[in-house]
């Protein structure tokens, strides 16, 4: 529920910013947002997924130790330092070419990306230990604190593009307030087997003996190396690059190829794709919980519950996507005008296409979590790469007059291709 509300609040952030700023200023905010979330999703979500899967797997097998946390922290720190170095070296192109010469937007980008390193580490830790209430609280606090900045502009407490942009940097810092609670509860649960998430040593030993192969001498092999964690994180990093290509290549390519009107048109394309983005924010609740859940089922050899979890999720996604498509068919242009103003016309058919693409994309994301739980990260990365390359090729190889429609058609086509590829990988895993 917390993550679901987060999706609505995120939508409100852009709606308020759209009303408070000019089209060009709002377009710059959407480009800043895209740059930040492309970067943090690509760099840091692999570690979140690594922690979520590894902690769940080790808990199911009754393994102890903190080596996996050190490995994940090492990877995350290295990625953060690498970003800082590249951002400082390329300050000129980033500030002038992407962010319109604004030093404020540049520093917001740098601070936000570095702050999200800690935020995504905390998310992986909470998800792996099934602290979903705290996870939801973290992302909800992040979203609400970000939204307060354009609210201040709308009501007249502050003014200007810089104030709305500062919310993007402040949000991940404020959200880390939940981390002390999480650590405190974790330490208390270690000493209390009846506490939520507390471990019963006898149950842990039975689980380890049931599902964990023994090394020589009868000792369970619990070593988790940097090579092991790095390999999984690298494959997921490819997936994250492709995921952000789906969500952000449209606005960024439109901005780069449409000259003077590119920034404003990019904001328009961004608004259309929010039909897919907002449900994806809600779907994070499913992604967050389903990976450790499926990992535990696989560690215990429970094939039927694994399959039922996937099938139920896909049915729920189908029903939700159908509902959104019907709403867009009936009220799509009216709702978009209400949320973002009536200066541009939103095509009804294009909005329905994006809703259909959203359903296909969410189905593919579910199948991807199944692949990660089964240890098929590399094969999943190949599927994502093929679909992402096809999407970008479609946008670059054919230049049509209606660039917005081209992005909409490309999105639904690439999502369908991705769903087919990951579906085939899922069936192969079943066999």
Strand content: under 5%
Q: How many structural domains?
A: 2
Alpha carbon gap, first and last residue:
35 Å
**Main sheet, how many strands, which sense, barrel?**
none
Low-confidence stretches: 193-221
Q: Which percent range fits the helix content?
A: over 70%
- Please provide the ordered H/E string of secondary-structure elements: HHHHHHHHHHHHHHH
Query: What would the principal axes of the Cα set say about the shape?
Result: globular
Rg, please?
22 Å
Number of strands: 0
Mean pLDDT metric: 81
Describe what this molecule looks like in 3D.
By secondary structure, this protein is mostly helical. It folds into 2 domains: 1-210, no CATH class; 225-431, no CATH class. Helix content is 84%, strand content 0%. It contains 15 helices and no strands. α10 (226-257) packs antiparallel against α11 and α12 (303-340) runs antiparallel to α13 (348-373). It is globular. The protein starts with a helix and ends with a helix. Residues 193-221 have low confidence and may be disordered.
């Amino acid at each position: 529920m917390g993550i679901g509300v987060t999706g609505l609040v995120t939508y409100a952030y852009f709606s308020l910013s759209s009303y408070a700023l000019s089209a060009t200023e709002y377009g710059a905010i959407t480009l800043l947002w895209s740059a930040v979330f492309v970067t943090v999703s690509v760099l840091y979500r692999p570690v979140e997924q690594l922690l979520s899967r590894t902690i769940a797997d080790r808990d199911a097998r009754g393994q102890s130790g903190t080596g996996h946390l050190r490995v994940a922290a090492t990877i995350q720190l290295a990625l953060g330092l690498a970003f800082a170095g590249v951002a400082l070296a390329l300050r000129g192109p980033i500030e002038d070419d992407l962010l319109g010469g604004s030093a404020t937007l540049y520093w917001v980008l740098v601070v936000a990306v570095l702050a999200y390193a800690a935020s995504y580490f905390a998310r992986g830790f909470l998800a792996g230990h099934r602290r979903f209430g705290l996870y939801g609280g973290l992302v909800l606090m992040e979203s609400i604190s970000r939204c307060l900045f354009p609210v201040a502009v709308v009501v007249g407490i502050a003014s200007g593009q810089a104030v709305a942009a500062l919310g993007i940097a402040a949000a991940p810092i404020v959200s880390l307030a939940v981390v002390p609670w999480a650590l405190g509860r974790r330490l208390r649960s270690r000493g209390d087997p009846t506490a939520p998430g507390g471990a019963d040593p006898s149950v842990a030993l039975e689980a380890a003996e049931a599902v964990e192969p023994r090394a020589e001498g009868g000792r369970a092999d619990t070593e988790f190396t940097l090579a092991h964690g790095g390999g999984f994180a690298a494959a997921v990093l490819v997936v994250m690059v492709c995921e952000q290509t789906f969500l952000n290549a449209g606005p960024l390519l439109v901005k780069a190829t449409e000259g003077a009107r590119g920034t404003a048109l990019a904001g328009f394309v961004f608004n259309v794709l929010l039909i897919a983005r907002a449900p994806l924010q809600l779907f994070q609740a499913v992604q967050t919980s389903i990976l450790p859940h499926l990992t535990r089922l696989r560690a215990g050899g429970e094939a039927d519950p694994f399959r039922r979890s996937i099938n139920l999720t896909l049915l729920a996604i189908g029903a939700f996507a159908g509902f959104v498509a019907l709403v867009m068919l009936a009220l799509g242009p009216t709702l978009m005008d209400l949320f973002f103003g009536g200066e541009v016309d939103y095509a009804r058919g294009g909005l329905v296409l994006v809703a259909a693409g959203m359903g296909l994309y969410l189905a593919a994301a579910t199948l991807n979590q199944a692949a990660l739980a089964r240890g098929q990260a590399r094969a999943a990365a190949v599927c994502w790469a093929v679909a992402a390359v096809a999407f970008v090729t479609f946008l670059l190889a054919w230049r049509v007059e209606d660039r917005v429609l081209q992005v909409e058609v490309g999105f639904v086509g690439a999502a369908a291709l991705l769903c087919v590829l990951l579906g085939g990988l899922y069936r192969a895993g079943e066999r």
